[in-house]
């Protein structure tokens, strides 16, 4: 190497080493021209000099194919085309070939002529797949919108602020809340869940704040409230949009003052919990309509996380199917699924989201009696999806949203299943809680 070349090389190396994160310079042919030690260590057992000349996808994707040929968006091509920085979420493989998610920040490194000479690639790891794995409860998904949501959850987990998780029924709000808790500094304390739809106001207050012996008829002994059980931990209010104005006021008081009183006691106790709320309602609209307190909404909405509906992340369906089928059976016996059955799942919109997919597979495994899952093992609406079909009675029909809201259909379905709410809810593709709310609104409880 001549002196000038040596100097150039040293200059380039010190520039890439100045990056605090794994960083590489790549030319338009996907060839790495320089990388820092962090990059080399993140993906390989090689030195930066050994890596120069390799293709970027060989190093970070462990693939001879470019990432866009593997279903991902190629940030390099976009930077060379647009000449602007880009950011994408990719799945990379570390030096042990373990997958993990990264935010790829790509920037144009310009030549004197003004054109793009190199693609500068900086990586910010999001979450290791292992980090998402808590016992059997795991948040599955790797499409960009889902991984971005996970990234936000991980960020928010570092803070102690209240969080509002928004998403349609069955999108995994409760699982996301648990994930948040387990990644927070409160992880070794309790995660306490309250379903806001199942308690009357009086019971809600007693459950939340506890009571002294004799506080009301039947209160024979002193009882700690869930706020106390959650001391140092997390309080998760599911279906938060359903709480009454009275409870809204009481909750706001606790959040403002940081104290509460057990029923029948004058003693102020310190509340030390992190609040996570979940709702499938548009709370901002409810505030506008005067049905929800604006001050409470703004208090809990400082951090909002939205879970994408499954129909907006269909690319995650195969991974979810694989996960649920493995959970249903020991690994070596996990049932297979035919391409035609998988295609039927991919064509369907899953109004009940991941919960519906999970229930569908549970049922299909039983119907298939341990054999390969075929389309005939799936419910009729998946075999013949008719998203806009009208159904005016409880007969087996393609799902459409209005079914679960239509009082006539709810009544017909209830009658058809002899009043069994679990079966009725499954038929209407809503959670039992949602059905309960609707029955309550119809005066059918
Ligand atoms: N990304 C995911 N990966 C794996 N399992 C998931 C995922 N999302 C949801 N599930 C599973 O789907 C089911 C429903 O999830 P969960 O109860 O968290 O949804 P939810 O949004 O809180 O529903 P609801 O609004 O009806 O209360 C659970 O069994 C959960 O484990």
From TrEMBL:
Q: What residue intervals traverse the membrane?
A: none
Which Gene Ontology BP terms does the record give?
regulation of DNA-templated transcription
Under CDD domains, the record lists: AAA, PAS
**Is-annotated flag, keyword ATP-binding?**
yes
The residues covered by the Sigma-54 factor interaction domain are 139-366
Pfam families the record matches? AAA_lid_14, HTH_8, PAS_4, Sigma54_activat
MF terms from GO for this chain are: ATP binding; sequence-specific DNA binding
Q: Which InterPro entries match?
A: AAA+_ATPase, AAA_lid_NorR, Homeodomain-like_sf, HTH_Fis, P-loop_NTPase, PAS, PAS-like_dom_sf, PAS_4
Q: Which UniProt keywords apply?
A: ATP-binding, Nucleotide-binding, Transcription, Transcription regulation
Q: What is this protein called?
A: Sigma54 specific transcriptional regulator, Fis family-like protein
Q: Which organism is it from?
A: Thioalkalivibrio nitratireducens (strain DSM 14787 / UNIQEM 213 / ALEN2)
């Amino acid at each position: 190497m001549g002196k000038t070349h040596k100097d150039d090389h040293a200059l380039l190396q010190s520039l890439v080493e100045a990056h605090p994160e794994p960083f590489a310079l790549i030319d338009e042919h996907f060839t790495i021209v320089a990388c820092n030690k962090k990059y080399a260590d993140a993906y390989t057992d090689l030195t930066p000099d050994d890596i120069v000349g390799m293709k970027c996808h060989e190093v970070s994707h462990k693939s001879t194919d470019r990432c866009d040929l593997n279903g991902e968006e190629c940030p390099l091509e976009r930077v060379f085309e647009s000449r602007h920085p880009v950011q994408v979420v990719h799945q990379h493989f570390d030096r042990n070939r373990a997958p993990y998610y990264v935010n790829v920040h790509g920037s144009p490194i310009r030549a004197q002529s003004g054109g793009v000479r190199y693609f500068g690639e900086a990586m910010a790891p999001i979450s290791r797949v292992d980090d998402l794995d808590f016992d059997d409860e795991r948040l599955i998904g790797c499409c960009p919108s889902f991984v971005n949501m996970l990234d936000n959850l991980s960020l928010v987990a570092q803070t102690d602020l209240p969080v509002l998780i928004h998403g349609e029924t069955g999108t995994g709000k409760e699982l996301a809340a648990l994930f948040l808790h387990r990644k927070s500094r409160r992880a070794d304390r309790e995660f306490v869940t309250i379903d806001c739809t199942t308690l009357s106001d009086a019971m809600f207050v007693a459950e939340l704040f506890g009571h002294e012996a004799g506080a009301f008829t039947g209160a024979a002994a002193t009882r700690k409230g869930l706020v106390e059980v959650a001391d140092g931990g997390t309080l998760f209010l599911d279906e938060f949009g359903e709480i009454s104005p009275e409870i809204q006021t009481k909750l706001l008081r606790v959040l403002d003052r940081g104290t509460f009183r057990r029923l029948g006691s004058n003693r102020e106790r310190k509340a030390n919990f992190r609040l996570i709320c979940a709702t499938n309602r548009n709370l901002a609209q409810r505030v506008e309509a005067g049905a929800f307190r604006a001050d409470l909404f703004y208090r809990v909405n400082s951090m909002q996380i939205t879970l994408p509906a499954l129909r907006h992340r269909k690319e995650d369906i195969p991974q979810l199917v694989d996960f649920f089928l493995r959970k249903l059976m020991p690994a070596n016996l996990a049932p297979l699924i035919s391409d035609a059955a998988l295609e039927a799942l991919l064509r369907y919109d899953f109004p009940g989201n991941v919960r519906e997919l999970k229930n569908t597979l549970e049922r299909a495994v039983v119907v298939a009696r341990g054999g390969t899952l075929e389309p005939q093992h799936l419910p009729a609406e998946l075999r013949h999806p008719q998203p806009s079909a009208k159904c005016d009675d409880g007969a087996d029909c393609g799902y459409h949203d209005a079914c679960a809201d239509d009082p006539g259909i709810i009544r017909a379905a209830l009658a058809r299943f002899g009043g069994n709410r679990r079966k009725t809810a499954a038929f209407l593709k809503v959670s039992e809680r949602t059905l309960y709310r609707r029955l309550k609104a119809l005066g059918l409880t």
